[in-house]
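FIELD: query
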Amino acid sequence: MASQQSMSPEQLQHIIQQHHQGLQPSLQQLLQQQSTAMHHIQQQKVHEQLLHSLNEQLQMNLMHQAQILKDPTGAGSKWAGASINNQSLQALLMQHQQIMQQIQLVQRQFVLASALQPFGLHQGKSSCSQ
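FIELD: result
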């Protein structure tokens, strides 16, 4: 039999540590992944709160529009009340459009954040610097 070189206990320990380091992600990588996941969850909650708030604004806007359309003459004289209500209705319609645009923007941001999130988890830090 061929003679085998013997290794010192320190050399064996060093080889075992290198082997384990190659197999297991470092604690820092795990913490980065956890931090990225927590950040994504916080972003998701913010988006959900924004959407909830915008939906409430939209409901109030629609209620005001319905109220104006139910009573087109208003409280004053027939012509003055109709003119004021027409202006109010136009303002509410513009506000309605703005709220809808904000909802769409928040939804797009949410979809984009959700689409990019897995990359951040698998690569540690997100490398989107475009």
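FIELD: remark
Residues 120-130 have pLDDT under 50 and may be disordered.
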